[in-house]
Amino acid sequence: MSVQQLEQFRETIRNQLDRTVDFWLKYSHDTQYGGFFTCLGRDGQVYDELKYVWLQGRQVGDLYIGVIEFNFLFCAGGAFLRKHARVSNSSGQWKCAFCLTRDGRAVKVQRTIFSECFYILALDELSRVTGDKDMQLEAEQVMAQLVHWVQVDPSGLGRPPLPGDTPTSSMAVPMMLLCLVQQLSEARGPQEALKYQSVGQWCVQQILRHVQRGGTAVLENVSAGGQELKGCQGRLQNPGHALEAGWFLLQYAAQWGQQDLRDTAITQFIKQPFHSGWDVEHGGLFSFLDVDGLCPTQLEWSMKLWWPHCEALVAFLMAYTQTRRPELLESFTQVYNYTFKHFPDEQSGEWFGYLTQDGKVALDFKGGPFKGFFHVPRCLLLCENLLDQLLQKDGTRAGPGPV
Amino acid sequence: MSVQQLEQFRETIRNQLDRTVDFWLKYSHDTQYGGFFTCLGRDGQVYDELKYVWLQGRQVGDLYIGVIEFNFLFCAGGAFLRKHARVSNSSGQWKCAFCLTRDGRAVKVQRTIFSECFYILALDELSRVTGDKDMQLEAEQVMAQLVHWVQVDPSGLGRPPLPGDTPTSSMAVPMMLLCLVQQLSEARGPQEALKYQSVGQWCVQQILRHVQRGGTAVLENVSAGGQELKGCQGRLQNPGHALEAGWFLLQYAAQWGQQDLRDTAITQFIKQPFHSGWDVEHGGLFSFLDVDGLCPTQLEWSMKLWWPHCEALVAFLMAYTQTRRPELLESFTQVYNYTFKHFPDEQSGEWFGYLTQDGKVALDFKGGPFKGFFHVPRCLLLCENLLDQLLQKDGTRAGPGPV
């Protein structure tokens, strides 16, 4: 792979990042009530005023990363979230809402941890920029609550225990927690990193338990004891999620100097899910697969969604940057070619999110209940940074280096 | 349309009904624990042992309709449901589970009324066959609870009220209740019919409030006051659901001799949703549409699902049988041609449930979390009965007649 090729990747990625940021900057901000509109049509029109908290939190968390000029928007979004996201129930407990009205009234509360996760992401990012210690404290308090729900007692989530509901371990939970551990400790120095060290270790161990079938597959759900579960739930594979876990583990391995973990991440969370998850007929990554080759029950299993491709780009480029193994850059190129051919919307900017199996646009909105200002800019920014690193170092330093 | 054509429809439909019944009879019964396996792969293999209560209830309700030889299975399924479906919570209230393990332990309870609806359907059908008065009483008691949740106080469903969660009226609720009113009163004589008369009237009024935009559209969700709601939820159209409501209304109109209601059902719930919901490019009915022509947020919006086609077949054939208007038989034929070309599986029997927009099989299982022994046999049996009626009467009696 030539330097020119890497330069060309970088040029396209920088350009796409600019266009993506422009799109959200132009259409997303609610100047009347604060916060962000997340349901944006192909050309940026607001087709629903509901504000999804996952995306509010992610947007606040992401807007700032490397994009200093968004200071104003970013703070406005954070203020909206802090004012409205937390909802108390009659017994004095609280949860973050999943969805708010335009003016901030809670519409729906989920019985999972994810709204809280994105709330922490937003608070912590905002506290770093503003230096607001109170906000940082709140982020840490919510994190402590989250760790309690996950490791000690989930009853506060509001899901009554049922006799047939075997405790299961979904990979999403330790992944999200690990992401928050990185968030809460990075750029805050070794003191903060040590504070969350044991939670981070727990997350890594939990993620590794999803490698099943003698190391040949990452399964999305396992039993609380780390065994394969019966039925569809147990056989479910989510290639995009495995790839995302892969680069989370790469970051962690680089931070703590764990070369074995780096190699496990590359072999089992990046290369293997990519090879089994790639659609050899039409290209692109499947959304879900059944490890026994049965038909998944998720209606969108064969659709090509934007975010698994984002995760694959980051995973392969980070793995290549750490190891300089050429086959990793080849896989990156394969994903890159599919992604940039199919997802970006040349007409109106940003990316389409949902394609049919054979690569046609199936849903043309740019933002919706689960697509916002998150995966695309995070991927583009991380890839740009990695390419910067590769281009500056190319020819001067071989071998692995921290990301 | 010739008599030969109707005979040919009837022959195909009878044949398909036999094959469908054979399939479920052969693969669905759990001889060890009772109840039915509902997750059946293309060739009938059980790919998950979870038992979804909607489908257990529907299967018990449907197995018997006109298929006397299933007495044994049918009772076994009913016994499993009665033994396991009801789950009590800590405050002494109960709900029906949404999903049970193979041996009947509750896995999940939804905060909606639908599991209870199918439980009533099963109990009532079973009580009719066995003459078990206690079972009939339980069906009526659960029905009373349901009416209370819907008309008086939904708090027992377990969804805490939230300030941004505007009360909305989903068409599914009065449709299900109307279906149960028919179930609980049909074949039990005028006395029983009178007992549920006011609930039935309420359901019809509620359903009619979903006709919006000056009569040009049926919208799936409206405000509690019967107004159009803002956003995606308010603009949502579900053509299959409107068509199903259409034939529910036709049955009701025939029972109570309401010719105006019959005409409203045909014009606004059958012809209009069919014309706006039909995919002129690829054929078949869309799953969801946005009344303003925006992109729905449901990932499967453009997929062709089996059940809207079932509902369209029944709706047009029933409307034709009641009115003998030729254009209704033409539309029936249009749906029939698409349906029987795309959905039945010639290889293994039963129907595929989920096609891509252009008619390829996207998911090949025969039973899953939402597809069971319900829409296909109900549709085929009703169509066969309607065709019997048409063929016997053809040439001897013109004009509308009760179904």
Can you give keywords for this protein?
403 residues; 14 helices; three-stranded antiparallel β-sheet; mainly alpha; globular; 2 domains; Glycosyltransferase; homodimer
Can you offer a commentary on this structure?
- 2 copies of one chain form a homodimer.
- Chain A is mainly alpha-helical.
- Chain A folds into 2 domains: 1-28 and 168-394 and 399-403, Glycosyltransferase (Alpha/alpha barrel), CATH 1.50.10; 31-159, no CATH class.
- Chain A contains 14 helices and 16 strands.
- Chain A has helices spanning 3-27, 53-64, 71-84, 114-130, 133-152, 172-185, 189-195, 197-208, 231-235, 239-256, 259-277, 306-323, 326-342, 375-393, and strands spanning 39-40, 46-48, 51-52, 86-88, 94-96, 99-100, 106-108, 168-170, 211-212, 217-218, 221-223, 236-237, 289-290, 304-305, 354-355, 361-363.
- Chain A starts with a helix and ends in a 10-residue tail after the last helix.
- Mean pLDDT of chain A is 90; it is low at 65-70 and 394-403.
- Chains A, B: Homodimer. Forms a heterodimer with renin and inhibits its activity.
- Chains A, B: InterPro entries: 6-hairpin_glycosidase_sf, 6hp_glycosidase-like_sf, AGE/CE, AGE_dom.
- Chains A, B: Keywords: Isomerase.
